[in-house]
Amino acid sequence: VGKTTTSCSLAIQLAKVRRSVLLISTDPAHNLSDAFSQKFGKEARLVHGFDNLSAMEIDPNGSMQDLLAGQAEHDDVNAMGGGMGGMMQDLAFAIPGIDEAMSFAEVLKQVKSLSYETIVFDTAPTGHTLRFLQFPSVLEKALAKVSQLSSQYGPLLNGFLGAGGQLPNGQNLNDMMEKLESLRETIAEVNTQFKDADLTTFVCVCIAEFLSLYETERMIQELTGYGIDTHTIVVNQLLFPRAGSGCDQCNARRKMQTKYLDQYEELYAEDFNVVKMPLLVDEVRGKDKLEKFSEMLVHPYVPPQ
């Protein structure tokens, strides 16, 4: 529907009026690289042609074991130690969402240390978008699980692995507890910022079709439930056939879009800024086309008569 295009365009406009802007994609599809025709990774990198706009793409499904172990590699683990490590991993992964929560928390810690003035999140499709708001409770469950392990298996681990009680990856249960607690605090702090209307707002991007209208309504209700400010909806890919156009397909599609556009207006016009974006002939890729598209976000598109 144009989420990434809109995110990139919004970041471009913000870069004109902010000291530094970071654009983060949490979508596993990693479309930022395609949009800017430039390769991005998990480290923030300046976008070509800008000196205050950076971008990064993160994998929301990073490995929890990697996060806990850092980059340490212990290939010579004995069989008993390996069994203990496997047990820890199995128990940790028994908590739904822990992998994603920890990966996200690590990214947030990194972003905090970079101190950008404005951050734009290009989120994955609706189902994934609000998952990170549940991460603090996920990490609290993980903490409880590890705490339980510590009391149950701590003496056993010490017996098997020596006084240090170390796991194969060089961690011990106390290290895990501290790591999880630190990540939980980071996410809890960010969630507080997300719920502050002076600091954060959510922009919904949709198209004028039934399913998109339904998804947008559901998402706005969820956002409101979480206490997150949202007052802008971008309706993308609208057709504006010229008066008297002989294109039957264009006219039929415009008629359908008008029906759903009227519903958007009826539902949201009073409390929301509804931005109408046209369906363009060319694909919006590369800095120049994104800049052109971004202008229509701030200066309303006027269709030809």
TrEMBL record:
Classification via Pfam families: ArsA_ATPase (PF02374)
Domain ArsA/GET3 Anion-transporting ATPase-like: 1-298
Places the protein is found: Cytoplasm
GO terms of biological process kind: tail-anchored membrane protein insertion into ER membrane
SUPFAM superfamilies the UniProt entry points to: P-loop containing nucleoside triphosphate hydrolases (SSF52540)
UniProt keyword annotations, A-Z: ATP-binding, Coiled coil, Cytoplasm, Endoplasmic reticulum, Hydrolase, Nucleotide-binding, Transport, Zinc
GO cellular component: GET complex
InterPro entries: ArsA/GET3_ATPase-like, ATPase_ArsA/GET3, P-loop_NTPase
Coiled-coil annotated spans: 173-200
GO molecular function, one term: ATP hydrolysis activity
Presence of keyword Zinc: yes
Family annotation (PANTHER family): ARSENICAL PUMP-DRIVING ATPASE ARSENITE-TRANSLOCATING ATPASE (PTHR10803), ATPASE GET3 (PTHR10803:SF3)
Family: Belongs to the arsA ATPase family.
Protein name per the record: ArsA/GET3 Anion-transporting ATPase-like domain-containing protein
Organism: Cordyceps confragosa
